[in-house]
Amino acid sequence: MGSATYEWIVRNGERVAHEAGSAWPYAQSAWVFTRRRLPGVAGADVRFVAGDVRPVHAAMATAAAGRNV
Fold it and tell me: How far apart are CA 5 and CA 32, in angstroms?
């Protein structure tokens, strides 16, 4: 996901928790593409990366273990 989406989720944690049951709505690993330093989310597997998605795709596919990326 992009940093704007990530920041929206973090900024609206209470709303997300009300709708999804948790302030971080994803059980799977998440990659956030950003050049900025952003705060993490406790208990969430969030990986901050920058640049082209192609070099990161292999790690994403491995973590997905056959599921959609």
Answer: 9
